[in-house]
Amino acid sequence: MVHRRKANDKGSRVISRRQFMGAAAAAGVFSIVSCHVLGGPRRKSPGEKLNIAGIGVGGQGSGDLKEMDGENIVALCDVDWERAGGTFNRYPDAKRYRDFREMLEKEDKNLDAVMIATPDHVHAPAAIMAMKMGKHVYVEKPMAHTIYEARLMTKVAREMKVVTQMGNNGHGGEGLRLTYEYIHDGAIGSVREVHVWSDRPAGWWPQGIDRPTDTPPVPEKLDWNLWLGPAPERPYHPAYVPFKWRGWFDFGTGALGDMAVHNADPAFFCLNLGAPSAVEAETSLVKKETYPEWQIITYYFAARGNMPPVTLKWYDGGKLPPRPEELGEGKQLDKNGILFVGDKGKMLCPGWSGPPTLLPESKMKEYPKPPQKLPRSIGHRQEWIQACKDNNPKGALAGFAYSGPFTEALLVGNLAVRLGKRIEWDSQTMKATNAPEADILINKHYRQGWAV
User: Fold this and answer.
1) Rounded CA gap, 416 and 437, in Å?
2) Pairwise CA distance, residues 437 & 36, whole Å
3) How far is CA 134 from each of CA 103, 110, 384, rounded to the nearest angstrom?
4) For residue 40, what pLDDT is reported?
5) φ and ψ at residue 80, rounded to 5 degrees
6) Which of 139, 102, 103 is nearest to 124 (CA)?
7) Which residues are registered as beta bridge partners of 165?
C-alpha cells in the first residue's frame, strides 16, 4: 500500500537541533555531529567499559542487552513501559525514556554506543540519528525497512567511521565459517543454485489480512504515537503490537526480513553475492496492507569473478524446495534451512547459519575437514563490543558494509511481491528499471519529525 499523506506528529517533542539535523539530511548533508565528537569516536583504554543505551528493550532488545551486561547500560528507551518493565528493573540505575530522539539529545555526552531493537520501520531513524552523533550502533535484523534506508545507513556509518553490526547472530557462529571453508575447498564444486526457506510467518504472526475496523483504547503504558514513529498515522489495535507488526507493510518486512537475514546469510557471505540482476515472486493473495501468507521469491545473480551465475530461491509460509534425493531415508527438511547445489554435490545447513552437512551424509566421513580459512568469532555481540572499544569499524563482521548490501538485495524481493511483477534491478541507481511505480516502495514518505 502506498501512503502519501503526512500526518501531524501529535505529542512528539521536536526541538530546534532535531529540526536542523532533519533539514541537513534532506539536503544530502550526512556529516552533522555533536561538537565534542567532531574528531570521531575514540578508542577505549584497556578495561574501560562502553556506555550503552538501548532503544526498544521490551522484546528482542532485552536479550541483546543481557549479552552486553559487562558494559555500562546507562539509558533505556521504549514506547511501552509495561512490556519493558523487566528490562527497566534489571538496570535500575539506567535513565528511562519513551522517545529515542529525546534520549539521544539528553544523553549525548554520556553515550558511546546504542543498541536498537525496535520494529523495522524505526531502525533507520534511530540508527542514523545515533551515528550522526558519533555513536556506534548495533541494529537488530533486518537492518532497515526500505532499500533506500539500508543504503543511507551504510553511507552514514562509513562517513562517521562508527562501528556497526546487524543482529543476524549466526554470522558470528562456527557454522557459517565451516560452510565457507567447505565451499571454497571445492567440496561441492561450483554453486549455481541455492534454496533457502523458513516456516515463518505461520504460527508467529498473521499475514494476508485486512486492516481491522474497530478502535479499542490504547493501553495505558503504551505511547501509540511514538510507536508509529515515521509510519502513517492510524488507530491503535492489538493486531499490530506486540510482534504482529512484522506482517504489515507500514511496519515490517515480512518473513523475508525476519528470517532470510539468518538463513540466506551463508549464501551471500560464502558465494560473494551482491545485488540481484532480477527478482520474481510467486505468492498467495497479496492484500492491500499485509504480506501474503506464503511466497516463493527467485533471485538471479550474475557471475562474480570466477564464480558462475547463481539462482537463489526463497520459500516461506510452509513452502519448501524439493526434498534432495541424497537426504537420508525417512529424513525431511527442517522448518528453516539452506541447500547449496553444486556441480559436484550438495550441502545442507540448518537455519541461523547452522553447521553444514555434505549430502549424502556419508560424504561427511569421506571428505577431510577443509583447512581453516577464516578467523573464529568471539561471539556476534561481543565482537561488536570489542570493535567499539578498539574503534575499529572493520572489527564487527556483520557491520553495515556487509549487512547494508545484503539487506538491500533481500528487500528487492519484497518489491516483486508487492508489485506482482518481475523486477529488473539496477543497484547503482537503486531503480527497478521496468517498474517506476516501485520508487515509493524503495524510498518511502515519513511523518513530520521522523525523516532520515
Assistant:
1) 11
2) 43
3) 15, 12, 15
4) 61
5) -120, 95
6) 139
7) 138
Whole-Å CA distances, 7 to 20, 164, 202, 446, 448: 20, 32, 33, 9, 7
CB 400 within 8 A of CB 266: no
Contacts of 411 (CB under 8 A, 6+ apart): 142, 144, 146, 147, 150, 253, 256, 257
Q: How far is CA 22 from CA 6, 27, 187, 220, 269, in A?
A: 16, 9, 51, 31, 34
Paired strand residues for 73: 52
Q: Write the DSSP assignment of 67-114 as a string of letters.
A: TTTTSEEEEEE-SBTTTTHHHHHHSTTSEEES-HHHHHHHSGGG-SEE
- CB-based contact 105:17 (threshold 8 Å): yes
- CB-CB neighbours of 285 under 10 Å: 7
CB 132 within 8 A of CB 34: no
What's the confidence (pLDDT) of residue 46? 74
Amino acid making up residue 145 = H
Q: How far apart are the first and last CA of the chain?
A: 21
Q: What is the bridge-based pairing of β-strands 51-55 and 113-116?
A: parallel
What is the number of residues in the chain?
Answer: 452
Angle 254-259-263 from CA coordinates, rounded to 5°: 145
Rg, Å, the chain Cα set = 22
User: Could you give the C-alpha distances from 30 to 134, 155, 357, 445, in angstroms and in order?
Assistant: 12, 8, 45, 19
C-alpha cell at 423: 523486477
> Which pLDDT belongs to residue 31?
37
Cell of 206: 498473521
* Residue with grid cell 556509518, as numbered in its chain: 157
Q: Are 439 and 2 contacting, i.e. CB atoms less than 8 angstroms apart?
A: no
Ranges of residues in the chain with a pLDDT under 70 are 1-40
Please report the pLDDT score of residue 45 as a whole number: 77
pLDDT of residue 41: 79
| Calpha distance 239→245 (Å, rounded) | 8
Cell numbers 558511546: residue: 112
Residue 246 CA: distances (Å) to CA of 78, 105, 166: 18, 29, 17
